[in-house]
Known about the structure:
24 strands; seven-stranded antiparallel beta sheet; disordered N terminus; alpha+beta
Amino acid sequence: MRPATLPTQSFVTPYENLSGIREECGVFGVWGHPEAAKLAYFGLYALQHRGQESAGIVSSDGKTVCEYKAMGLVSEVFNEARLSELRGHISVGHVRYSTTGSSSLHNAQPFCVRHAGCTLALAHNGNLTNAHEIRTELEAKGSIFQTTMDSEIIVHLLAKTHRNGLEDAVSQAMEVVKGAYSVLICTEKMLVGFRDPLGFRPLCIGKLGDAYILSSETCALDLVEAEYIRDVSPGEIVIIDENGLRSFQTTQKKRSANCIFEFIYFARPDSQIFGQNVYGFRKELGCALAHEVSLDADVVIPFPDSGNYAALGYAQAANIPLELAVIRNHYVGRTFIQPSQGMRDFAVRVKLNPVKDVLKGKRVVVVEDSIVRGTTSKTRIKAIRECGAKEISMLVSCPPMRSPCYYGIDFSSKGELIAAKQNVEEIRRYLTLDCLHYLSLEAMVKASKVDAGQFCLACFNGDYPVDPGSCTGKFQLEAAAKKYD
């Protein structure tokens, strides 16, 4: 199996998400549009929130496959000249934040190889829990890996059985891999999408005229003016070629394990995922907070942007004025001059700054989407206190996160989670809050208006829908594959 040619790019240090949680990845595929690559570019633009490390697009005109990927944001990686070279009516695009595999160009996606006269380009969102075991077995049988990504494992599995047809190869690969995956594959003539049997990560189908689109979120469909058709079902394989769209179910649905953190934090509020609108879900979480706790306060404020909608729901339900009293700098770049030791809070302050006149002398309720490590929240609370706030309470629109995630979110060790080491009162004191309240698990699920069995709640209750096995997130896989970096 030979890796496809990759353009040489210099390494750019990735900009860190200052809120404490890293995004995962976003995928976008097009079949049947004369400007498929340009459409993918706009789709990735809409999905930029899901990954800011690297971006890539692979295209095909039915005979020749072209690719371009580099470190950076979508707007930094692509321009008119590069897009014009990505000819064809088929394309697959990817934006990445690494949850497995280091942050470097050779781990950027789509991952493109040529094998037995056919090109396979793969874009993956999720995390495989048995990646280490499969990789070890494949290497023992002679497979040579080019990256430290778990995604490359899927390509190797497909290559082993590809001669029997891509449909059969994908089906057999899905029997082997475990964990979370929403995957797009394009060949010279075909676009394929599939989701893991529990449907951890979102993937939807859209249509633009005669063209089909597959996307991580519906907000990308909206941007390119495509019509949302439906979600790809958990365990479903969707194949699009000159004969149109066909699909088949690889497993009988027993339960779902949709990542509830997609609603709380990851997805854009204008997206529809897992059959629900993200904006409405977050607002319901805020209403649920108001039913659980009553506070005497003068003003409700969110930490933008993910806290905005829960704050709106809480303020309306509690009948307390909402103020957008923390201003976000939308022009923070990917790199900046490192602050001196005396400016250790600069990395947070450069992104968010409170409005002193709105907060001075006020009893303030801060509504936050989550607390992961606590360090960023502590700095933000300190800034509000320095503005002269009389009291500061914090309401969190999800329960305490006490367990690692092995399915594609970057808190894969218990030591990273403040709630795994401290109780709520200890966290309150650490954050210097007058009051701290987390939404209960029951109220969070009730806000979704569906059965709790639809969601993966492992980061809150430690009940893992798929056995993590020996998986310990990206750290183990990187250590196992260190010699390839």
